[in-house]
Specification:
Length: 138
């Protein structure tokens, strides 16, 4: 092999290794940024408070309930506020099959179902938590 070919192959190999190393570093840095915890200021900024919803349960009792939906960023916050009608629809459907005892003991499960179903329809970001902030059972 001529000296020129050896230099070209060696240069190509060095560039290839440097490119792969750069890609690996960039992917790990981006991944680390995605997993960072939000500060309390960001949690407050990116959370959405639902309107109070009054509906009946399966056994005829009425419930008034309100949630704080916490998102993972600005885009998700804007989207969930626009999807308010879908959130209300999910709540009404879930509460319609609950009775008074289910409601009293299954509030955490209801929050998890709301989170899961909202994340299914979200396209920008995701819901990280759903918290009950107000509930009245009559």
């Amino acid at each position: 092999m001529s000296k020129l070919v050896k230099v070209m192959v060696t240069s190509f190999a060095i560039l290839l290794i440097a490119s792969i190393a750069t890609i690996v570093v960039l992917l790990n840095v981006v991944k680390a940024d995605d997993n960072k915890e939000l500060t309390i200021e960001e949690v407050v900024k990116y959370s959405y408070q639902t309107p109070e919803i009054t509906t009946d349960l399966e056994d005829g009792t009425y419930v008034r309930i309100q949630f704080q939906v916490i998102t993972d960023g600005k885009d998700a916050h804007e989207e969930v506020s626009q999807r308010d009608f879908q959130l209300v629809n999910i709540l009404i459907k879930e509460l319609a099959v609950m009775n008074e005892e289910d409601f009293k003991s299954g509030l955490s499960e209801l929050e998890q179902v709301i989170k899961t179903k909202l994340n299914e329809v979200m396209t920008e970001g995701q819901i990280t938590d759903v918290l009950t902030i107000n509930k009245i059972l009559q």
